[in-house]
Amino acid sequence: MTTVLDSRLLGDVLRDILRPFDLPPVEDVATRRRLARTLLSGRDNGSFDGLALAYAVIAFCASTEDDAARVLEALRDNADALVLDGVRGGYVLLPCAQDGQLALARDLHARLGLDVWMGVVWASRRDLAAARATAEDVLRVASCRAPGVYELRNVLADFAVLRRPHVAERLVRVIEPVVAQQPLLDALRAFIAEDGNRAAAARRLDIHRSTLDHRLRLIERLTGCRPTSPRALLTLSVALTAHSAPDVPLPRTH
Fold it and tell me: Which strands sit side by side in the sheet containing 116-124, from one edge to the other?
């Protein structure tokens, strides 16, 4: 027969298991925004009742203010979502089991059908401030690429460089002569986008392959990096990110 102590212990265990998935709704928008800011800033002392134990942290930015507003509209009926919004970007916190963050972000992105960039990280509640910083840096790299959902593993080399300003500055100096010449910049971007496939890059640019080869040789002469080498092409790609990665339009968390 189950003792009173056993019943209490079982109740505690079940409450911990079900807590992320049985949350009371936070209806007031201002309250949800305030909770998101507190959690993302690292000021949470664990005193908020009814919040999840872990979240998918999504940093997002949109190409227009209207698109950013539609992100919020898509989350309006999700009482579990905590959102800290800005003009063209913001943060979304969604209760999430480990390894479920990518599916949640992709589902949201697919429902939007917009030019929106998302950086997504999973974290337990006590680690949300660090996850926010990572998601923001992932988003900063991703904003130089096609709209979509990105995790750290998708942008690892660029992320590592952006976290080391002295390295980023050196790479910026390497790539500046290429950035200053639009035909060379276009050629390099197309070559990177086509994963080093010269024929595909030439088609993308609508130029002859020999013209592309000439521009790639000029890039090598200016940078010391041969674009046809996979390692050198990665270096050039990261250098471009270091040069052009913008400050994403995210709201302050402090």
Answer: 82-85, 89-95, 54-62, 116-124, 148-150
